[in-house]
Design a protein that fits this description.
Layout lengths: L2 H16 L9 E8 L2 E4 L42 E4 L3 E8 L12 E7 L15 E7 L10 H5 L4 E4 L7 E11 L10 E12 L6 H4 L5 E2 L35 H4 L4 E3 L54 H24 L7 H12 L6 H10 L2
Parallel strand pairs: 3-9
Antiparallel strand pairs: 1-2, 1-4, 4-7, 5-6, 5-8, 6-10, 7-11, 8-9
Helix pairs in contact: 1-5
GO molecular function, one term: metal ion binding
Cofactor: Cu(2+)
Enzyme class: oxidoreductase
Length: 380
């Protein structure tokens, strides 16, 4: 089989299978909580359920429908078997992991945290279908027009939420959510990654949560987000100086919680980290804005290739193992190498575009047609 024929065959196979087997490296889930120094390991998707205070989701793909019940706690999320004991004012480290075990793969979009009382004070049976959520934390850009807090998740750091000191005692679901905006320039492109954890909060106040806030502070999922919300449909998200301030979807943080809540990114973690840094790609760097051809700051792309022995003929496709490991993997690598060699010829002229391409390459496991088209478009 000629190299051209093999390439065309691989490309056709990949285009078809990309819709059936999307890359898990581009998505993720909450793998661990650290509460007051104690670790709570989360169950991995695709595996048998395990004892945890974090609700297991069926897969790491995002929730796309704003009318889906999965918007509450994630795809096919089920109640967990354990409850984490916390106090009002506790700090909760939330560790996000990519689907293949690396760092969180996205950089653009807000992080938000809600809480809701569990029905009948029993979080292990509450499905979250009728939960009344109250926002206690939100984080967008570090500075107007600057990097997002999500970028720190991409760098391997956990996000820390501080429970309001005035949060009433009781059984709670904590809904922590990433809203990824990297494809939110068009309607329906936004991606939702909600995760629910089960908490037993002790504190001085005993008033039910719903009675401690106004009706305007209460959210429902689905129900509280609209596809055209300015914080969800963001055509200007990549424009220089774009400011997300005031665009957070959903209700505001109640005044009684806003002074005591608040999240942040922590540089160091407590306990044993379950995430591993992604390999760095040599080359690159941010342009200082001067077209002086200074190699120290002019952005550039370094293409790293690898060699794999491609079978001389196709192995019979008699089961999924043969299809995936003996046919698809060589095809994927051959196709990616060919596309990269033919497309990555021009220098990246903007640091934002440079980072996006390196991010796409470093997380590329099985390329899908959308990702390859976007890659080619950026280098035309």
């Amino acid at each position: 089989m000629s190299s051209i024929s093999r390439f065309l065959g691989c490309a056709a196979l990949l285009s078809f299978l990309a819709t059936k087997f999307p890359s898990v490296s581009a998505h993720g889930y909450v793998s661990r909580l650290v509460i007051d120094g104690r670790n709570y390991t989360g169950p991995s998707p695709y595996q048998n359920p395990s004892s945890s205070a974090i609700r297991q989701i069926s897969e790491v793909s995002p929730v796309k429908s704003l009318t889906s019940p999965d918007l509450a706690c994630g795809l096919s999320a089920k109640p967990a078997s354990l409850v984490a004991n916390v106090t009002s004012g506790s700090r909760i480290e939330i560790h996000w992991t990519s689907g293949e075990g690396g760092n969180w793969p996205h950089e653009v979009g807000p992080l938000m945290t809600y809480v809701a009382n569990c029905a009948n004070n029993d979080c292990t049976t509450d499905t979250a279908a009728t939960s009344k959520w109250v926002k206690i934390d939100e984080a967008g850009q570090k500075t107007p027009g600057g990097d997002w807090f999500m970028k720190d998740l991409y760098d391997g750091k956990p996000y820390t939420v501080t429970l309001p000191s005035s949060l009433p005692a009781g059984s709670y679901l904590m809904r922590h959510e990433i809203i990824a905006l990297h494809t939110a320039t068009t309607l329906g492109g936004v991606e939702f990654y909600p995760s629910c954890s089960q908490l037993q909060v002790t504190g001085a106040r005993t008033t039910p949560l719903a009675a401690a806030v106004s009706s305007a502070d209460i959210a429902s999922f689905p129900g509280s987000y609209n596809a055209t919300d300015p914080g969800l449909l963001v055509p200007d998200v990549y424009n220089s100086g774009f400011d997300y301030t005031g665009l957070f979807p959903g209700p505001a943080i109640p005044a009684s919680f806003s002074s005591t809540g608040g999240g942040n990114i922590t540089g160091s973690t407590t306990g044993n980290s379950s995430t591993t840094p992604l390999p760095s790609v040599p080359g690159g760097g941010c342009d200082d804005g001067n077209n002086d051809n200074d190699p120290a700051d002019e952005p550039r792309v370094v293409v790293v290739t690898m060699t794999i022995t491609v079978p001389p003929s196709w192995v019979p496709i008699d089961n999924f193992f043969n299809l995936f490991f003996l046919n698809l993997v060589p095809c994927a690598i051959t196709t990616v190498q060919t596309i990269l060699r033919s497309s990555l010829q021009q220098e990246v002229r903007r640091c934002r575009r440079h980072r996006a391409i390196l991010h796409m390459i470093s997380h590329l496991m099985i390329p899908d047609l959308h990702r390859l088209n976007k890659l080619a478009h950026l280098y035309r």
